[in-house]
């Protein structure tokens, strides 16, 4: 039995492609109209779910995802650079939706609203950043990708995604390499991750460094290790959504590595399925020739 057959049997994710598509399009419309909510982040993640459905062959429609991906990138820029998050807007949004006054605090801390002064305080940053880096890489929106990555500093706030802080922080390290300007304090963050006791975080860091150093030997060793560690990271728990089965940052790194002339090492079927490609979701690229794992 192939990996994809086992996947469908073990986790019967929703296979109604049309229903998923309508839901994502609705979220995009709501996000464009909503001036004071986190719906931009949710819409971006809904589009990533659609990509995952197509990648894992649950989506058999001919619907092109390119336009939805482009819209999600623009909403992502608004999420990070818009003024919707100002304190008065956030409080108004919470009250309009019936949240209690004490819900304006998280984990006992007052709601952080001065996010431009301290970007690390932004909630929901990790999955949004990770997904947008991949989506903008898939569609070669490099200028938009750099602007999103410019927003982050070297001291990300823990996101409570189920990952360790060090593993989450490797997403910021990847973003640092994709910024338009160098990130102050990056060396300090890299050193902290390299010395940590989290095998997945260290494996991701080695993969990032091998990619941008264009070191073929190190890349060939680091990619299989990172993908194996990715699967180990959720082996004892079921994924909440199908995109949880995608190694999102690793997919981004692979696209960039191939564009820099690196060659993929031999991978198992399971390792290959973890990585989203333009070909697997029906996107035609104009610049990179390496759109498959063949």
Shape descriptor:
globular
Count every beta strand, where a strand is a DSSP E run of 2 or more residues: 2
Helix content: 55-70%
Structure classification: mainly alpha
Note the beta-strand portion.
under 5%
| C-alpha Rg (nearest Å) | 19 Å
Number of helices: 13
Return residue spans where pLDDT drops below 50 for at least 5 consecutive residues. Answer: 101-120, 286-294
Order of helices and strands: HHHHHEEHHHHHHHH
Oligomer: single chain
Query: For the terminal residues, how far apart are their CA atoms?
Result: 21 Å
Mean pLDDT comes to 78
Read across the widest sheet, the strand sequence of neighbours is 1-2
The largest pleated sheet is described as: 2 strands, antiparallel
Verbal overview:
The chain is mainly α and 294 residues long. 55% of the residues lie in helices and 1% in strands. It is built from 13 helices and 2 strands. It has a two-stranded antiparallel ribbon with strand order 1-2. Helix 10 runs antiparallel to helix 11. The protein is globular. The C terminus is likely disordered.
